[in-house]
Design a protein that fits this description.
- The chain has about 550 residues and is an alpha/beta fold.
- The protein has 17 helices and 21 strands.
- The strands form 5 sheets. Strands 1, 2, 3, 4, 5, 6, 7, 18 and 19 form a 9-stranded mixed β-sheet that branches. It has a 5-stranded parallel β-sheet with strand order 8-17-9-10-13, with helices on one face. Strands 14-15-16 form a 3-stranded antiparallel β-sheet, with no helix packed on it.
- Strand 15 and strand 16 form a beta hairpin.
- The longest helix has 21 residues.
- About 50% of the residues are buried.
- It binds NADP nicotinamide-adenine-dinucleotide phosphate (NAP).
- NADP nicotinamide-adenine-dinucleotide phosphate binds next to helix 5.
Amino acid sequence: MSGQRKNSKENVLELDAIVIGAGFSGMYMLKRLRDELGLNTRAYEAGNGVGGTWYWNRYPGARCDSESFYYCYSFSKELLQEWEWSSKYPEQPEILTYLNHVADRFDLRKDIQLETRVKSAHFNEKTHRWEILTENGERASAQFLISGVGCLSTANVPAIKGLENFKGDWYHTGKWPHEGVDFSGKRVGLIGTGSTGIQATPVIAAEADHLTIFQRTPNFSVPARNEPFTPTKQKEIKANYDEVWEKARSGHGGFPYSPTTRSALEFSSNERTAIYEDIWQEGGFKFLWGSFADIMVNKEANNTAADFIRGKIRETVQDPVTADKLMPHDHPYGAKRPPIDTNYFETFNRDNVSLVSIKESPIEEITPSGVLTKDEEYDLDIIVFATGFDAMTGTLLKIDIQGRDGESLADKWEAGPKTYLGLQVAGFPNFFTISGPGSPSVLSNMPVTIEQHVEWISDCIQSMKKNEQVCIEANVEAESDWVTHVNQIAEMTLFWEANSWYLGANIPGKARIFMPYAGGLPTYFERCEDVVKQGYAGFEFSA
Ligand code: NAP
């Protein structure tokens, strides 16, 4: 590790900044603070490798839903020119290789401590420093504490009666074994049909003897239409990178689509279907974010997209009873995070795949030999939980974080997370969150918003150093106004109309609050810049 200072009396490692996590966020934060600001910085990472989400999520079929050439860092033009993506939507190992390359290329590893989970972080009001304790019993202190723990890193394994008695093997997709799982000749049960379950289904089905999918909520999905990048395509991308990033940063969700202002309701039914068909053939998130401007704000407009997808499901799935069960009906398209798939609905035409609606016939328990629903018992060798995450707050709240007056973050956020700009929490000086609740985060192409956050935070710290300020802290009014604003924006959308993890609805007992900022990147970025121009309005500094 570089630049260590140890207070030998207390055995506390003294640093300028501590970063939690070494995924997309943590690695770039470390780089900025260390290389641009010259701060003695260390990143603590629970995994035994870098990569965050892409380190943990090794389930079959895991790949990115944003296109590779803009699901990456843009801070280094050289890196953009050097790196070759193999295809539009590369699989998890390729993204992990990329992140490992970044760690090596920028010499980050020497300041990343692996296999180290931060257990507690307490703000010491006398020294104005954060004191952290790791699960290995190590102590460190720093002026700044930055969370790069990610939005989707605490696995949600539902508390289903009897799981401990299951004689087969079970896995959660977010904690997949590094050595992989051999499904050949196995009867597999998959619980969950979110983005993960939808990616995993076709791949497991191709290998297993039989795959039973236990579906609670039928979901919409749009084909990814993955394809390899030819050398000509690679060249074209690299020649146009400036334009790609400009478009991505000015796009609502951080995607480099040409902006659209058209309404789905301005067109005749035939014209609209032709537009949807074109985008369906192109594939990917563009169906939601690049087709019509009002899909997420107008129910009637949304219905046109939802009906189109339902039509595609009907056309694709040969058995009408299965097609009926797969038909999404209880939420608007896009109100749950929209999956992107490769042959998901087609997989239900295989002889070795069956679908069980656990809305109609709920799971009663897991028995030693499989899953028992209200109507039937399914014998299984392997159960795969694709049941998602305690999103956006789960991982932070697993750490005992205490700010001023010993107030814990868990208490402060009991009724739902409160932040200012998704960047800071009142009462927790010098603590920053990258992609925190209240930021666009999961409603965006993450690397674009992560880079903006990291740069905002490092610019802020640089300004503090220049002005000899010791602490920055969001003020309570600014925080409360921001939370209100985030909710008001969400209320103007259809996001409220689904039981999604955006609202915490997937975790029993979790406060139902819309967590990400739905106002779009341009508005959010402008707001962050305005705050700086107004002398960090809404923040208080102490010298
Ligand atoms: P998810 O979207 O939360 O979906 C979880 C699934 O499990 C849902 O079908 C849910 O049903 C079901 N489920 C949850 N608890 C259950 C229970 N107790 N009993 C039965 N079913 C239960 O989780 P995910 O699919 O892992 O995706 C999480 C997020 O990760 C995504 O939304 C996305 O942001 C990200 N992700 C990204 C990529 C990518 O870009 N490459 C790929 C995968 C995931 P209900 O719908 O009824 O709650």
